[in-house]
Structure formats: C-alpha cells, structure tokens
Design goal:
By secondary structure, this protein is mainly α. The protein has 2 helices and no strands. The chain has a domain of 80 residues. It is rod-shaped and about 170 Å long. The model has no long low-confidence stretch (mean pLDDT 85).
C-alpha cells in the first residue's frame, strides 16, 4: 500500500512539473520591428484612404456646383429667349395693326369719290 501511495504522489509531482507552461519566448528585436513597421503601414494606408475619400468628396462637390451653374445658365438663356419671343410677337402685332390701318385708309379713300368743284 505504501508503494501505491508513493507512486501516486510521485505521479502527481511529475504531472505538475510537466503541466507547467513553457516560459514565453522573449520577443526578438526583429519581431518588434516587424510589428512597428506593420503598424506604420496600416496608419499610412488609413491616411491614404482618408485623402482619397476627401478628394472624391471634393470632386462630387465641384460637380454639383458645375451642374447648378449649368442649370442657372440654361434658365437665364430660356428667360432671354422668352423675352425675345415676346418682343417679336409684340412687333408682329404692331406691324399687323399698322398694315390693317393703312389698308383701311387706302380702301376708304378709294371708296369715297373725290368731289371736285
């Protein structure tokens, strides 16, 4: 019985000794340098993405302003064309009225005989 207990106790000590985790390997300077470099690359990539987004946003803003300017110019052209058309209509009406009055005066003059004494 003493041998069995001694064997069990020896087994527990053995498993306790082997169950311990190995000491963590000391980080090498190369690994630290690689981590630092990766971190810097990540930050550079983030900065580049941020710049790209800002440039795209600025391009969209410029395109909107250009489109608004084009619309404003088109409206101004349409307004000018409308005023020109109204002026032409007004002129045509005046010409028609003048022509009608002239025609009326010539027909009235031709219809009334001239009295001579």
């Amino acid at each position: 019985m003493k041998k069995t207990i001694a064997t069990l106790i020896a087994g527990l000590f053995a498993t306790a000794a082997f169950a311990q985790a190995p000491a963590p390997a000391a980080t090498t300077p190369a690994a630290v340098a690689a981590k630092v470099e990766a971190k810097q690359e990540k930050q550079a990539a983030k900065a580049e993405v941020k710049e790209t987004k800002a440039a795209a946003k600025a391009d969209v803003k410029d395109a909107k302003h250009a489109a608004k300017a084009d619309v404003k110019e088109a409206k101004a052209d349409a307004k000018e064309a409308k005023h020109e058309a109204k002026a032409e209509v007004k002129e045509a009406k005046a010409d028609a009225k003048h022509a009608k009055a002239e025609h009326k005066s010539t027909t009235v003059a031709a219809a009334t005989p001239a009295t001579t004494k």
